[in-house]
Amino acid sequence: MAETSTTTNNKNGSPLVNLAQDHLFSILLRLPIESILSFAMSCKRFRSLTSSDFLWESLCKRDWGESSVNAFKSSCPIVPWMWLYKQGSHLECVSCHKLSDPDVDLALPNPRASHSLNFVSNCLVLFGGGCEGGRHLDDTWVAYIGNDFRKKLNWQKVNLGIPSGRFGHSCVVSGDYLVLFGGINDRGNRHNDTWVGQVACHENHSITLSWRLLDVGSIAPPPRGAHAACCIDNRKMVVHGGIGFDGLRLGDTWVLEISENFCFGSWHEVMTVPSPPARSGHTLTYTGRNQLVLFGGRGAVYEVLSDLWFLDASEGSFKWVQIHYQLQNVPEGSSLPRVGHSATLVLGGWILIHGGEDSLRHRKNDFWALNTKAIPSSRLEQAVLNSPKVWKRVDTVGYKPNCRSFHRACADYSGRYLYVFGGMVDGLLQPAEPAGLRFNGELLLVELLPLL
Fold first, then answer.
1. Which residues are within 8 A (CB) of 98 and not within 5 positions of it... i.e. 6 or more apart?
2. N or C: which end of the chain has fewer CB within 10 A?
3. What's the rounded Cα separation, in Å, for the pair 62 and 29?
4. pLDDT category, 93, cuts 50, 70, 90?
């Protein structure tokens, strides 16, 4: 369309030109990005309209969630929204920084693996895990994330002995609470207890965290560890798989529905066909669209997996759908199968996957991004996706992280910062380390949009 006058008496122009600006915004916010960019080429008025900060901020909220965008604004008040949308939608690289320095005379959590790490109430909360000698830990550490966290981040030990020591448990954020389930102690005992934790920050900069056992009645999932879990709808926790008694890998799915006051909850099993095969060391990640994405893990016959499933709860009930893709169609896809990795929803709607190990126990330090926008929202029996658009390898700049597995990661409220702690890393073969294994105690910051 040629450039058109915006006057109302132009009978030859498009009726769109005569619409009020707020009506045009409403139309644009219902269009895919490709259509908006084409719309911008139509005339000068539309070009000016489609380059406005207000429109691109609204598009970020539409595609990434309002809470994520508002959190980003609070930490970075001046934001070039069009640039942010472009960078967040492509996610070409991340920047890594080491935050914890063992040479500094500060209290730091012990090196560990198979622990939990969560971001809640503007704090990092670290609990439990396993350490050298196959021993479990029962300590809880908290670090407040303020504006100067890159220069100074202080860990505080806030609890010891409650919950009991364990590793391979799960801990998710549900509103302003933490919900912890299961795990294994150093005697090999599996747990199926459920705990609720709440953080409180005080004016004197001290932090407290209270744990209490959640009353779930007589029905609970069988005891397990090395399972996967995440939260959906703020008061629902989903648990899948893990290792039960006698080392048996599980393939069941359970949902915990928590009361509004977080005083009690009820478990029920979700049984659908098809459903993911039994596994451990996999991940479950909430996409923000009433869907959970399951990836990887170690199967029932000890094979390392790369299959992809999503659990759809968009119509009030749960249904597993497998997402089929071909590894050979993914650039460098032969390195995708893994267990003991992390998978976190970050800015732009990507699931950022880091580390893990392959079938030969070779540990990894790579980053992969899974495009959640390519996952269908309809309740299909199965989905076949265009592999190059689903997966992409993400470059890193800055500090080079160690190859690791069974670490833990979480993102801040904006999704711009990813925090990674601990894990098992390769070590020198020594008498005290018969498997050449050591535990890591560094806190890694992974920053998206490092040029902002």
1. 399, 442, 443, 444, 445
2. N
3. 8
4. very high
- In whole angstroms, how far apart are CA 448 and each of 86, 205, 299? 12, 28, 32
Question: If you search the block for the tokens 């009978």, which residue do you land on?
Answer: 11
More confident residue, 436 or 172: 172
- Residue 251 CA, chain-centre distance (Å), reads 21
Q: Is 49 strand, coil or helix?
A: helix
246 — alpha (psi -120 to 50), left (phi > 0) or beta?
Answer: left
DSSP 415: S
29 vs 306, residue with greater confidence:
306
Looking only at the bridges linking them, the beta strands covering 382-384 and 319-324 are parallel
Q: Encode pLDDT of 308-355 as tens digits.
A: 999 988 777 899 999 888 888 888 889 999 999 999 999 988 999 999
Mean per-residue pLDDT for 126-154?
86
Q: Are 98 and 399 in contact (CB under 8 A)?
A: yes
C-alpha 318/C-alpha 254 separation (Å) is: 10
- Distance CA(120)–CA(189), nearest Å, equals 29
Q: How confident is the model at residue 136 (pLDDT cuts 50, 70, 90)?
A: very high
- Do residues 23 and 46 make contact, with C-beta atoms less than 8 angstroms apart? no
In the predicted model, what is the mean pLDDT of the chain? 86
Classify each residue of 358-378 as buried b or exposed e, where b means 16 or more C-beta atoms within 10 Å of its C-beta: beeeebbebbbbbbbebbeee
pLDDT bucket at 388, cuts 50 / 70 / 90: low
For 133, phi then psi, to 5°, come to: 85, 5
β-pair partners for 204: none
Question: What values do phi and psi take at 57, rounded to 5?
Answer: -65, -40
Q: Considering Cα of 395, then 401, then 404, then 409, what sign does the dihedral take?
A: negative
Burial of 266 (0-12, 13-18, 19+ CB in 10 A): middle
